[in-house]
Amino acid sequence: MFNRPGLKRPLLTACIFLVVLLLQGAAWAASEPVVSKIRLSQDAEKVRIVFDVSDLPEYKIMTLENPLRLVIDMPGVANKGIAQYRVNDPTVARVRLAAPEPGKLRAVVDLKTPYLYKVFTLKDPNRLVVDIIKDYEQKQVEELAPGLTYTSWLRNQASGPLWAHILEVDPQAGFAVQPVLSNGVIKGLEPLLPMAERAGAIAAVNGSYFGPDGTIIGLLKIDGEIASTPALPRTALGIMPDGRMLIDQVEYEGQVELPDDRTVTIHGVNRPRGENELVLYNGLYAPATGSNNFGREYVVVNGKVTAVNTGNSPIPPAGFVLSAHGAAAGLLAGLSIGDGVRLQQTLGPEWDKTRHALGAGPMLVKNNSVFLTTKIEEFGSDVAGGRAPRTALGLKADGKILVVVVDGRQELSTGMTLLELALFMQELGAQEAMNLDGGGSSEMVLNGKIINRPSDRRERRVGDALAIISSRVAN
């Protein structure tokens, strides 16, 4: 016979065991830390991220470099439905919460720039705190050869991250700086790497401003021959035959003396001819002038006119072409084959002695003081506006040369204004300094490699460059 109380005892025992399990599970659930909220504060020095938690969690930290992330794993922590928190800051992009596996919560801080961090917990109320330190600086100095030093300088400042590439060149150690033309001529464009390779350069940076066809905008003088002229006085770098360098504003004056002793003004060198202009083309421009047939062109060799054409004249290697239009063509109308002409060009007494010259501007530093000539030299917002990638050259009191590229328009480096660039060049020790072309053109190559991050994400084809070469090669 069945004993009814005996039948109920196992059932009662099972029920009690189940209740105990449920109560224990509830206790475990109650003790599991939960992230209920993310809070954030920002100032010039740091971004503070606060995770409000029901109980202080254990955590493990990992750092990733590509992509740049700070990862905090919290085993046994639950999430109260928070997905992400976007941050408007130059250093921190966003904060995300995810569960990479059951029973683990992962906090991911996506970053825009290198950083320092500090992670700690606080009680009453319970918090996990992450400080992202913005005041970050990393400087790496490498002596490439005696007298040639490269510095990579990555730092954060109030305006955001900054990455600068600095070459310090000592001419006394056997190095020289000289301009290099794209493809060896004015007309046309070329990336910096092949230009540096062709010149046998140890390093190079972009140089002058240039037009879509490669025409140099500003002064350029190579091996004593004027290759391009400024439309108005602008800052240029001059290199003397003995290697001495100077930075100043330079103006070009040119004229042609005709057989009847009249002189006609030259409006420019090696650029497209405009209305009523006289433009001089020499062998540094291209094989031919490329001009239209609405003017008059005089080919001159050894001081005598050897041919008269209407346009697109071949440029003799040892001569030049005078290309005239409108009023200027009328002034030259009496010239015939065989007539003698005399060319007169000057950049001023001191600058006429230079072997090389390269213009850009504006000036940044003069006599060890910030001296911006942006308005004087009539630069517009395309050069002077806002933060951008920049290239600059400076001269130190001890005769050493500073060649600088600052990356910009990217998360890792915001770039500089011209004033910030001037202050930076002054900080590096420049007594005199000038701005070169910037933006997507800003690039530095070293030993056959691009060492900065051009904002175009690739090499931009440019009109000319400044190359650092051995003095033996330069001579």
From TrEMBL:
<protein>
    <submittedName>
        <fullName>PhosphodieSPTER glycosidase</fullName>
    </submittedName>
</protein>
<feature type="domain" description="AMIN">
    <location>
        <begin position="38"/>
        <end position="132"/>
    </location>
</feature>
<keyword id="KW-0378">Hydrolase</keyword>
<feature type="signal peptide">
    <location>
        <begin position="1"/>
        <end position="29"/>
    </location>
</feature>
<dbReference type="GO" id="GO:0016798">
    <property type="term" value="F:hydrolase activity, acting on glycosyl bonds"/>
</dbReference>
<keyword id="KW-0326">Glycosidase</keyword>
<dbReference type="InterPro" id="IPR021731">
    <property type="entry name" value="AMIN_dom"/>
</dbReference>
<dbReference type="InterPro" id="IPR018711">
    <property type="entry name" value="NAGPA"/>
</dbReference>
<dbReference type="Pfam" id="PF11741">
    <property type="entry name" value="AMIN"/>
</dbReference>
<dbReference type="Pfam" id="PF09992">
    <property type="entry name" value="NAGPA"/>
</dbReference>
<feature type="domain" description="Phosphodiester glycosidase">
    <location>
        <begin position="298"/>
        <end position="468"/>
    </location>
</feature>
<keyword id="KW-0732">Signal</keyword>
